[in-house]
Amino acid sequence: MRQIVEFQPSLAALVCIDMQEEHRRDQRVLAVDFDATLANVARLQTAARAAGFPIYHFAYIVDVGAGTTRKHHPRTADGKSAFSDKDDPNSTICPEVAPLENEPLIIKTEASAFGAGFGEDLKQRGIEWLVVCGVWTEACIDASVKDALKRDFRVVLVKDACGSGSVAMHQIGILNLANRLYGGAVVDTAAACSLMSGEIVEGWTPETPVPIRYDYETAAAIYESL
Asked: Which strands form 55-60's sheet, in the order they lie side by side?
């Protein structure tokens, strides 16, 4: 259901996940409507910087020779990673949403943004809320949000600042997270920007366990209503 959402700006951070060039240039991993996602992430970053929010940037980078790469990770004929290879220029963050000098870029080797001390750093800074955006919704966003919830963070999931390989994949990814986003909320970019500026907004939050029951015919309409 839709409820009032508010937080103290000093207790929140913006998390931007895997906004890499490959998602608009590499046919194997294109994200649908990625330019729109980029524009919305840029809006969130502008609002966060104006409000003094810390911003954490993440990039999924694969080094097939590293011990962190799984045995059955997909590879090309020349042995390189089939996506996000460490030597591929398309693995870099898109310039429109690249980190500024004082903003960390954290390299991750798995879906979730949590690892390498990230959660501990947030706790040390007194962060309680995470405003989350990026790609892909049903993969790295899903894993990161679930890990955040497991660590007792409250998540504001910005639905139109996330993206995936198709509209259906993205929308269903958001719906599945919305069903279990206890303590957090789903909002759009405009609401998230207002929230980071200290305003009170409306967001969708689950009032009961797994409240959304969708099918092929209803998923898109329910997504729009969040």
From this structure: 2-5, 201-204, 185-187, 154-163, 129-135, 12-17, 55-60, 105-108
